[in-house]
Amino acid sequence: MEPWSPDEEYENSGPGGNGGPTTPVAFVSTQQSIQLNVNEVEDDRTPEGMVCMGTFFRRRLIARSIVAPEALAELKSQQVFSGPVRLGLEPGSAVPPLCLAASLPIQRKGRGTGRAMDG
User: Is residue 112's pLDDT more than 60?
Assistant: First the structure.
């Protein structure tokens, strides 16, 4: 894959970038950062050995994700959601058709916390 310049038009080459049909890419985000909480939630569909991570806004469950228990523990130990974050919705091909994504600060080893990308 060749480097991409923000001055060039970009189209997603389909799932996995395998040269399949092209699909325009869209990402919509909140203008302001918002406070979220993540916790394990019970869900009968959770595969054995995994946990269901619930994302909450104002105590209301807004998203669920299946993750390894270690991944949820790492999010909590790193306090990833200790402060407000920007949220985005990205279209996908799975059901449900939207993916909720959080724009998080970048941490570089030995350099401290970076800035969240605005855009």
Answer: no
